[in-house]
Design brief:
The protein contains six helices and no strands. The termini are far apart.
Length: 140
């Protein structure tokens, strides 16, 4: 096998699942921090109401992170979360500076493109989506 050929390893799909699970766990923890205060938020984080931009992002982070973690409705959820991260970047970071290293927008950019990847790659074999697909393909 050449380093330039696509991998035929079963670990390609498994690593996609592991990447999705880790991203979902981290994203879920951001949402629970915003919604429930656990884990404890960093000092100076402003309070928010649920009917605010931060409140809507808290709901998306919590429930979107949970769905990504489970691998349920991965493609549409990842599409919504990629959009959320694009809005977060252009609304909260880009006005401060053009450069992501200066405006602290690197996590938003990386999550945006990570979720765009999940839109096209799917959830991987260790997911509820894959279980549903397998059950539908085995049904006559």
């Amino acid at each position: 096998m050449s380093i330039f050929e696509p991998s035929r390893s079963p670990w390609t799909g498994r690593m996609l699942s592991i990447l999705r699970i880790v991203a979902g766990l981290v994203y879920l923890s951001v949402g629970t921090m915003k919604l429930f205060g656990f884990p404890p938020p960093p000092p100076g984080m402003p309070p928010f109401g649920l009917i605010s931009m931060l409140g809507i992002s808290a709901i998306l982070d919590t429930f979107g992170g949970l769905l990504i973690l489970l691998g349920l409705f991965t493609r549409p959820v990842a599409f919504v979360l990629a959009g959320e991260m694009a809005v977060a970047y252009f609304h909260g970071h880009f006005p401060q500076s053009f450069w992501p290293t200066t405006n602290m927008g690197m996590p938003a950019i990386l999550y945006c493109f990570l979720y765009l990847y999940f839109v096209f790659a799917g959830a991987g074999p260790w997911s509820v989506d894959a279980m549903i697909a397998r059950s539908k393909s085995s049904t006559p």
